[in-house]
Design goal:
alpha+beta, 12-stranded mixed beta sheet
């Protein structure tokens, strides 16, 4: 009897069923499309935020700390793509003699920084150093410092040390440091402290050369040198949602702080960037509510209006069924079968429309898990409607 009833509805009430299914499809398509857009936009925010951070963690060892133990603690706290030891030394300045015989001039700078890097540093942190001239293999000098000293690749530069004789090195290349603010930031400063400006005069040395030049200064003036670990985390395991990713990164940083307590200080630049993105993700969710729900409500109102337009004929049909001996349970079952068919067709049409819009109409998409949740919620809304 249910089959005969449904076939009769399709023959005589087709437009009413199509109208109700269309309203459900509009509701489901709007909810699914906006949900996919929200998931995709937040995932994009997370991806851009993490990719824009050149150094995820900067771990600064206290004087006398065990560098090997700190390195092991970093690798235990989180999955990493690279960990590099970076050696910093303060200098009294740099000096260079330029010009030919009889025209030689001496250029001198103020205090600066000499940094020791391993050969793998620029592979693990390619955004930190940009070559302008010369070669990356050897002593590198910052563009501003090279301008102050009037030097370039192949020129000698004298490094003035604290309490020791100057040392002369030969410049191999001139570089720019786009992220100098983070590279030279003070680790462990209180949040209310004003940001420190990067030094004007910088020279980069191979780590072996740095040790030859500044190990004696470290012994004489340990307050003028320091060791940092620059950490590039594995972002593949992070959540696509900024709030969840922030919690994950912060938790790993807290774990590291516990392991290296008293041995090192941790600066979590990646978490700070994700913290800023969380507000943008919340704003996107608010837009979803204000822009998406009215459209979904309109689709629901359309469905209810079309359904209510046939209320009179439904009462007549149900009365005829009761006259012919149909029980209330049978009548309810027929109504449920009609609702199930209309909702199934509307949900399928709405999800297909959302799929087509997401794939071809808008350059948005999300991860499979988020899309599955979005599709399920939209389908349930269509079924309830």
């Amino acid at each position: 009897m249910t089959f005969l009833w449904i076939m009769g509805l399709l023959r005589h009430r087709l437009m009413r069923l199509v109208g109700a299914g269309f309203g459900i499809a509009v509701t489901v398509a709007l909810l699914a499309s906006l949900g996919a857009f929200l998931a995709s936009s937040t995932a994009t925010m997370t991806e851009r935020a993490t990719s824009a951070v050149p150094i995820d963690w900067q771990v600064e060892a206290v004087p006398g700390a065990d560098a090997t133990a700190i390195d092991a603690a970093i690798r235990k706290a989180a999955a990493v793509h690279g960990v590099e030891q970076v050696f910093y030394a303060a200098t009294n300045g740099f000096q260079a003699t330029t010009g030919g015989p009889g025209q030689a001039t001496v250029q001198t700078t103020g205090p600066g920084k000499a940094v020791g890097l391993s050969p793998q540093y620029m592979t693990n942190f390619p955004k930190e150093i940009r070559l302008l001239s010369g070669a990356l293999d050897g002593v590198l000098i910052a563009q501003q410092t090279a301008s102050n000293l009037h030097v370039g690749p192949g020129d000698p530069v004298s490094i003035t040390r604290f309490g020791l004789d100057p040392v002369v090195v030969t410049v191999a290349g001139v570089i720019d440091m786009p992220d100098a603010d983070a590279f030279f930031q003070g680790v462990g400063l209180p949040p209310q402290a004003a940001p420190q400006a990067p030094p004007d005069n910088v020279i980069l040395l191979p780590a072996t050369d740095w040790h030859k030049i500044f190990d004696a200064q470290t012994t004489l003036r340990p307050d003028t040198t320091r060791l940092q670990f620059h950490v590039h985390l594995d972002h593949a395991g992070l959540s696509a949602q900024p709030t969840t990713a922030y919690a994950e990164v912060t938790g790993k940083a807290r774990n590291l702080e516990v392991q290296v307590a008293g041995q090192a200080l941790v600066s979590d630049t990646l978490a700070a960037r994700l913290d800023a993105v969380r507000g943008d993700a919340l704003y996107a969710a608010v837009l979803f509510l204000f822009l998406g729900l009215p459209g979904a409500a309109l689709g629901a109102a359309l469905t209810l209006a079309i359904t209510n337009s046939g209320a009179g004929s439904r009462r007549i049909e149900q009365a005829l069924l009761r006259v012919r001996g149909a029980s209330a349970r049978r009548i309810t079952g027929l109504a449920a079968a009609e609702a199930a068919i209309v909702s199934a067709a509307g949900i399928a049409a709405g999800l297909l429309a959302a799929l087509a819009l997401a794939r071809f109409g808008l350059p948005v998409w999300g991860d499979a898990g988020s899309l599955a949740v979005t599709a399920t919620v939209a389908a349930l809304a269509g079924l309830i409607l």
